[in-house]
Predict the structure.
Amino acid sequence: MDDLYREVIIEHYKNPDHRGSLDPHDISFEDENPLCGDHIRIDLRVDEAGLVKEAAFDGHGCAISQSSADLLLDSIIGKSVEDIKKMDKQSVLDLLGIELGPVRLKCALLPLKILKAGVYGLGEATDDLVEGS
Amino acid sequence: MTELLIKPLIVEQVRADFPILTRETKPGVQLIYLDSAATSQKPASVIDAMDVYYRSYNANIHRGVHTLAEEATARYEEARGKVARFIGAPKVNEIVFTRNTTESINLVAYTWARANLQKGDLVILTEMEHHSNLVPWQILAAEKGVRLEFVPVTDEGELQQDVFENLLDQKPKLVSFTHVSNVLGTINPVKEMTQKAHAVGAMVLVDGAQSVPHFSVSVADLGVDFYAFSAHKMVGPTGIGVLWAKEETLKEMPPFLGGGDMIKRVYLRSFASNDVPHKFEAGTPAIAEAIGFGAAVDYLTSVGMENIVQHEAELTRYALQRLGQVKDLQILGPAAEKRGGVVSFTMKGIHPHDVAQILDEDGIAVRAGHHCAMPLHDRYCIPATTRASFYLYNTTDEIDQLVVSLDKVKKIFGE
């Protein structure tokens, strides 16, 4: 657990770099984890080349879901939308640098699910968006 | 009466009856189980009763004439009798075995309510209901145009009785509410509310999932029309629960699921329903679980419900006092004397999932989330809570451990 609640996670939970909203935005999507009520909205500004210029998230939830959102947005600025489509479970675990059981994995993956649903322009964020190695 | 002969509860002896309580969650970390409101642990006698069934007389019940079927049927029906006595049911055939409280409530919604409620009829529920006593009525409302109204909850976690009385002026057909809140711990005044509801001609359904395990309940004394509860929260197995209703009511209700055992006679195009309660028990039931349920009732009776009440009251008082001293910790629900052994709380700046995760490191099992009562959490404008719940095998030492670990949570989050 010292791993699970390592400093970087607590730090991003308490002092997130990307909390807020973008108005106007090019992409926005929100969803929640019905299991625990964690709720996240992600807004993106994307340039003509399809590169993410700005990213922000808002919502509430546990330290894992909120820090995962902050770390995730940190990692995608400057990245192309096509690269985001390739991200999966492992990308998030690498960002967090921890191992997670099945319940908390859902918390960690919620932001990526929402991000991918947004970039694909889908109506809902489904689990198959983040499955993979 | 017999309880006067029972020795006071000695928690070490009780704990010795529950094999799981000696386990460690990881090497050197002893399990501290504070999640009995979700499901209770099971004593060896319950586990053994089911084991013996599978090992020595496993057979399908009713209709069989061979020795094993006779034995299995006798034990299954004997369990029904034990449960009936345990809740003061006037007649054994008023006990319908279901899967759980949820199925019991759905049974009433699908049979009695569909036969008796029309468009525009009113059903009164409360803001503190578990989803199992909300969603079946929402489905009914969408299907039949039945109206739903809700008794609000005060800041202290009690039902607003004045609003309830005003709602009764609208002549509801059914009032359905929980005996004990699974989040707030509030014990509702079932008998008084039932009398008031009956005075305007409403039927009354009570969700007893959090009451029957913890104190002596007499359905006859409460005067309710339907009472629902589950075995697994009262040291029994999962997969079996009860709907109690008066024999006349059950007889008038249409059947629920169709199939074997719920019929007297089947023709190609029609059937005649079996007698109650079998009319509501289609298909092979949870036989081992019913037998385990019987053993659970025997166990609770042998410990004595009065003893359990006293023990839990002491734990609850102690927990409220100790948790009340933790800085930035907010407890939901009423004072100790008005609640059962459930304490839900929030900690400033720390999500309940994180609290539960860190407590788990110390072997402490609590529940985090909305506890299947999202509207109640909305009422208090909080997304989730952490819930510690107590039962006959818990100790004040375990509550001390909880407080120590909560301090650790605060340290990790730098609060």
Chain B has two domains: 2-42+305-412, 48-301.
